[in-house]
Design brief:
By secondary structure, this protein is α+β, with helices and mostly antiparallel strands. It has helices at 8-11, 103-110, 116-119, 222-241, 262-273; strands at residues 15-19, 29-33, 36-43, 46-51, 57-63, 66-70, 89-93, 97-99, 136-139, 145-154, 165-175, 178-184, 192-203, 206-216, 248-249, 280-281. It has 5 helices and 16 strands. The radius of gyration is 19 Å and the shape is globular.
Length: 285
């Protein structure tokens, strides 16, 4: 397993390295990104990110309540989430959850509707509603993987749900380790709640998931949003940590897909086309 990353796509992009709420101004916070040990510390009224091996201060920023850094030279800005600017939404961190698996596996699991009835029984799915209906997948002009017309019956789609209903989903893979989910709000069904999963690749077989929740406030407190997300992710974590292999195979022959895996197949192909190998088992040539 490679110790450090050589993928320019990842080295020259922004990644979350800490939740602002978890930091103390008088105590440095150790973490790791792409195999590189880092220290997050406060200096002159702002947080900075330092490489532990060289002492060099990296480019850093604070956005959405998280501390971000880039190990190389940023080729683009931090992911923009327009819903974060809407005043009638709770903007909540779902916590920082360490998971013993490749971050690419965590993203792929987030895209998988097929596991809802079996892993999130009574919440995001239940029998006999187990079939994933056909949906559309495309690569957008912005070079993102977009899955639309996704529909799935959920008994408790969110904390405000009072009955089960068929939920409309849209998935968007924005960066290799960043994926967003837009889903029907049970009260304002013409609008969508948004969950963005920022995954911090600690190394090739370990990650930290940083969910960022933009939920409509109607009928719900911010603490309830956070608790619901943590409940769902706690159900996912043991499944993820039992994945074999821990890294994501990119060879189309490695794991047999089914129709419901259309977005996963597109995601893996998208990673191959961008020469992303960190956290993956590259395809054989």
């Amino acid at each position: 397993m490679a110790t450090h990353c050589v993928d320019r796509e990842l080295l020259n992009d922004w990644h979350i390295v800490a939740d602002r709420e978890s930091l103390s101004r008088d105590k440095p916070f150790p973490t790791r990104l792409l195999g590189v040990d880092l220290i997050v510390r406060e200096r002159a009224g702002r947080f900075e990110v330092i490489r532990d091996d060289t002492g060099v201060a990296l480019k850093s920023a604070e956005r959405y309540g998280f501390i971000w850094t880039c190990l190389g030279t940023p080729r683009r800005d931090i992911v923009f989430i327009p819903e974060a600017n809407e005043a009638d939404r709770h903007l909540v961190s779902g916590g920082s959850i360490a998971v013993k698996v490749s971050g690419l596996r965590a993203v792929e699991n987030f895209l998988d509707m097929g596991h809802f009835p079996f892993v999130h029984t009574g919440w995001l799915g239940e029998e006999p509603h187990t079939e994933v209906a056909p949906y559309n997948v495309e690569i957008t002009a912005e070079d993102e993987v977009l899955a639309t017309e996704c529909k799935f019956y959920q008994p408790v789609a969110s904390p405000t749900a009072r009955e089960g209903f068929v939920v409309d989903y849209i998935y968007k893979v924005i960066r290799p380790y960043t994926v967003a989910l837009y889903k029907s709000n049970p009260i304002q069904k013409h609008r969508l709640d948004v969950i963005t999963l920022f995954v911090q690749p600690v190394d090739e077989e370990n990650c930290i998931a940083h969910p960022y929740l933009c939920y409509l406030k109607d009928g719900m407190e911010a603490a309830t949003v956070r608790s619901f997300m943590q409940l769902i992710f706690a159900q996912d974590k043991p499944i993820l940590e039992n994945q074999v292999p821990k890294r994501l195979p990119l060879d189309p022959r490695a794991e047999t897909p089914i129709r419901a895996d259309a977005v996963s197949v597109s995601y893996r192909r998208w990673l191959r086309d961008r020469a992303v190998t960190y956290g993956a088992i590259p395809a054989r040539v």
